[in-house]
Write a structure and sequence with these properties.
alpha/beta, 11 strands, Rossmann fold, globular
Length: about 290
């Protein structure tokens, strides 16, 4: 099987890829369980890609119940080196309006109930996530979204809340005071796990609402979100083929060696079963 050049993890509003010539569907068992859905592998414009529905087929998995570990590990097993996350988000800024797209460059993780690392059980690693998104993939994603006709904001901090409820007005205003730009429910811990797996990761977030801070606009509801999603999804579908044409064959970003120097456990202290479970991530560093 040809290694996918890109994996798209689709969130709310992106349940399938238009124009994807389906080659196979893989149900992948990982040491962390099964991913949210079978991984669809196909061709888009002659390029092999993988697609994973984050919330499952038919959107039946809560943000807190997504098996983020299994999702990222499954893509790692397929040889994926780049992931584009497509997510709906709320805006915490006046200039990031509904219908716009945002490619954030920072995360603030406010989640509590999620497994956010592959490590543990006798193997400790501390990765750097000062800049949590791949700079190259983020730049190309923003350019492709603009080429598709979207109004795109490159940069901004995305705060991830636990969900599934939306924010109170007090919370929304607090997030604005902290300097957050957009709000969502799924980027954490997905981005951190991708970094541990040394996979480039970027988010193409489409703004569906003004959360609840904007008193001149209607408060966020599922109806408001879906209404804007329908228009934005068409732009995303047009942006992805353009993004595939921008990808370079080789990666020059630091994501490819994120674990270099991060493993602190003495080699002779790592339990064999842990080393075996994490072999796709750590083998090249443990010799």
């Amino acid at each position: 099987m040809v290694k996918p050049a890109l994996a798209i993890v689709g969130g709310t509003g992106l349940l399938e890829l238009e124009g994807l010539k389906k080659l196979e569907e893989r149900t992948i068992d990982t040491p962390f369980g099964y991913p949210s859905s079978p991984v669809v592998i196909g061709e888009l414009g002659g390029t092999t890609v993988a697609f994973l529905a984050r919330h499952g087929v038919g959107h039946h998995i809560l943000p807190s119940q997504v098996n983020y570990q299994a999702n990222i590990f499954a893509l790692k097993l397929l040889g994926v080196e780049r992931i584009l996350s497509v997510s709906a988000c709320g805006s915490l800024r006046q200039d990031y309006a509904p219908g716009h797209m945002v490619v954030p460059d920072q995360i603030f993780d406010l989640t509590r109930d999620r497994k956010r690392t592959f490590f543990g059980d006798g193997l400790v690693a501390h990765i750097s996530v000062a800049d949590p998104f791949c700079p190259d993939l983020s730049s190309w994603s923003a350019e492709s979204a603009r080429a598709a006709g979207a109004t795109v904001h490159a940069g901004g901090a995305l705060i991830t809340i636990e969900g599934p409820r939306f924010s109170t007005r007090a919370e929304s205003n607090a997030f604005r005071a902290w300097g957050m730009s957009v709000i969502g429910m799924t980027t954490s811990p997905e981005a951190f796990l991708a970094r541990e797996a040394e996979i480039c990761y970027a988010v193409l977030a489409h703004v569906t609402d003004y959360d609840v801070w904007h008193t001149a606009e209607e408060p966020v509801t599922v109806e408001v979100v879906v209404r804007t999603l329908q228009a934005n999804t068409n732009l995303v579908q047009r942006a992805i083929p353009d993004l595939l044409r921008r990808l370079t064959p080789e990666r020059a970003c630091p994501c490819r060696s994120a674990l270099e120097g991060a493993i602190v456990t003495s080699r002779d202290q790592i339990p064999p079963e842990t080393r075996l479970r994490l072999a796709p991530l750590v083998d090249r560093y443990l010799g």
